[in-house]
Amino acid sequence: MSNVLYDEPGPKARRRAAIGTVVAAAILLGLTGVAVWRLADRGQFDAELWSPLINPGDDNFVLVWRLLGKGLLATLTAAVLAISLSLVIGTLLGVARMMLGKGGRIPVVAAIELFRGLPVIISIFYVYILIRSTGIDISFLPGSDGLWFLVIGLTLYNSVIIAEIVRAGVNSLPRGQSEAALAIGMTRWKSMKNVELPQAFRTMLPALISQLVVILKDTSLVAVLGLYTELLRRGNIISLNLDNPIQVLFVVGVIFIVINYGLSKLAEFVERRLSTRGQSSGVRLETGAAAA
Amino acid sequence: MDAVFDNLDLFWSGFLRSLGICLWGMVGSLVLGTFIAACRVSPIPSLRWFGTSWVTLVRNCPLTVVLFFMAFGLPEIGINQSYYVFGVAALVIYTSAFVCEAIRSGINSVSAGQAEAARSIGLTFSQSLSQVVMPQAFRSIVPPLGSVIIAMFKNSAVVGAFGVGGDLWSVYKNLTSAQGYDGLPVITGVAVGYLCITLPAAAFLAYTERKVAIAR
Predict the structure, then answer these.
(1) DSSP states of A215-276 as a string?
(2) Which of A86, A129, B68, B205 sits at 20 to 30 Å (Cα–Cα) from A46?
(3) What is the enclosing helix (H) or strand (E) of B27?
(4) Which of B89, B95, B108, B94 is nearest to B40 (CA)?
């Protein structure tokens, strides 16, 4: 293997690398061993702590997994609602930023910078306080109030991110696309809607899937605020009852990692497919994917 | 807004405490992230494997899960620290994966021909690294690394909300529950406090990006 840092190794370098591998592996195994020993020493591998999670014969097994399933469903519901709303609002914001004149653009840019700089957990909490103290009634929305505090908070942040993704996607298109659309008599709005956006969305797809990973992770922020019982808060409640935080949080972490890892791989796959398709049809899409 | 202006000193001390979390998180995650990046690009397969697994696991796990695991899990095996220490540690672990990826992609953006040319004129490994590869890599590292650090500043609010004491969130709790102020002006003050960290950081990053940008 040769890269910018080192060449194809010769016999001496190979020997050094082999020694290094053994030493590094020994250190890593040693550290893992210390951690495992510590866990075992404190009885963290005891069957009673794990059995509600992994032993179908356990009295609590069905209940625990039903609750975790409910939590996961709550997480996915919030994430899907947030990405859908962000997509709509973000596209509108992105298009507004591109199509408004210099003066009209200022409030849009200001909003984008403001919500981009605000920590998401503050946005969520702010929405909660704002709705509570102004007495706005959101009970007509389906689902609990907590769900909507979370979804609105996530949407505030993610729609400005998506607005920027949309802008990058449209800007990465060759100028000829909008020029051709204007030349055949389309208005600027029509060219945006029928020519530029559809192409931009294709190149944006990988970035959008990656953003879904960010949203999924951010849903667990409400666990800190305690406004909505999603997967992490559900796991936390379970672990308080069963007194096994390490085991339950381990399972919750694994669930998150598996889903997000799958989504990241999907984003990579879509990106590869888009760029190879682009090459075969002669359309230049690589630049768009890179910019997004 | 009296709630904010009457208690500016409280907000100021809370702001400094929150800023402290950001700075410790920045120093820690830069050190750990550089170490993980060094592992990922090293010629030793077991270290590469370690670096890759670390990034894959940490990047796909929410910060809150890392935080809960440390704050609620570690005491079970006899590791007791304040929430401040656990919070900063969780922030450092979480951010290190993103720092690593920023550094690694920067190094990979330098074309192999540069290092080959450096070697062929007789530069040693450390000379080629310090004189040829890193100066070029640095320019590509700055923009993504800056975004990662700003994201970390924002994530520090999660640590604050978890409850470390003395920061902007505890100012909120103090003023609303102990002193009975309305929530809305106080949380607005807290939000402005965080914006005072993130917006200048973003402006500084934009400035630095322009300075180090590669003319292509």
Answers:
(1) HHHHHTTHHHHTSS--HHHHHHHHHHHHT-HHHHHHHHHHHHHHHHHHHHHHHHHHHHHHHH
(2) B68
(3) helix B8-41
(4) B108
Per-residue pLDDT of chain B (216 residues), as tens digits, is 677 787 888 889 999 999 999 999 999 999 999 999 999 988 888 899 999 999 999 999 999 999 999 999 999 888 888 999 999 999 999 999 999 999 999 998 888 888 889 889 998 888 888 898 888 888 889 989 999 999 999 999 999 999 888 888 888 888 888 888 888 888 999 999 999 999 999 999 999 988 887 765
B44: domain range?
Answer: 2-212
Q: How far is CA A173 from CA A23, A91, A191, A200, in A?
A: 50, 16, 12, 7
Selection from A154, A151, A170, A156 nearest residue A94 by Cα: A170
Cα separation of A1 and A224, whole Å?
A: 45
CATH assignment at residue B25: 1.10.3720.10
Query: What's the pTM?
Result: 0.89
ipTM of the complex: 0.89
A5, A39, A224: residue with CB nearest B115: A5
Cβ-based contacts of B68 with chain A (< 8 Å): 223, 232, 236, 245, 249
Q: Which residues of A226-260 are buried (b: 16+ CB within 10 A; e: fewer)?
A: ebbbbbbbbbbebbeebebbbbbbbbbbebbbebb
Whether residue B152 contacts residue B26, with contact meaning beta carbons closer than 8 Å, is answered with yes
Other beta carbons within 10 angstroms of residue A281's beta carbon come to 8
Query: Do A262 and A138 contact (CB within 8 A), yes or no?
Result: no
Distance CA A67, CA B123 (A): 62
Reference A264, options B190, B68, B57; nearest CA is B57
The reply to whether residue A246 touches residue B73, judged by beta carbons under 8 angstroms, is yes
The tally of domains found in chain B comes to 1
Task: Say yes or no for a CB contact (<8 Å) between B62 and A261.
Answer: no
